[in-house]
Amino acid sequence: MNTSEVAKLLGVSASTIQRWVKQLELPMERNERGHYHFNNKDIELLKTIQTQIQNGTLLQEIVPVKEKKPRKGLVKAPENNAELERLYMIVTELEAKVNSKADSVASYQLLQHRREIEELQGQVRELTNQVKSLQSQLFEANKSSLPDKPLVLDKGKIKRKKKNIVSTWFGFLG
After folding, report:
1. pLDDT tens, 101-132?
2. Is the pTM of this model over 0.70?
3. Which of 19, 82, 140, 157 is deepest in the core (most CB within 10 A)?
4. Within 10 A of 3 (CB to CB), how many other CB atoms are there?
5. How many other CB atoms sit within 10 Å of the CB of residue 46?
């Protein structure tokens, strides 16, 4: 029986059955998926535990069963070492091929990046030369547009607006 069937039989939840098995370290068999599989002897043990709990015994006070049942094996042992060695050699060859391919891909990528860097360096050189050329043209343009004589105001006099006396006294208000 599986966990849910045993739980229905005893009138408890499946999680209660799982908790009893784990906390009391009961030696229950498991199927290939890791689910508990109960036989008649296991069910009788669980009924005994249920009776003890109903009589007031705490789960921590119940003495766990120390007898361990052998677990069913899931993986078959290889029938001969020759087959195992052959599989090991195949895996080793595949690893070597994967490593070789990874190395060649990395080398290709490095070469591509190197080409891209060289192209960018060429573009930077071209832009630097263009900036220098534009700077020299700007310097020449500024040099030729400067006037020979300094600018002078109309006979050195600046017309200023006269302030009246009232605005002088109350100038701090405005």
Report:
1. 988 988 899 899 999 999 999 999 999 999 99
2. no
3. 19
4. 19
5. 23
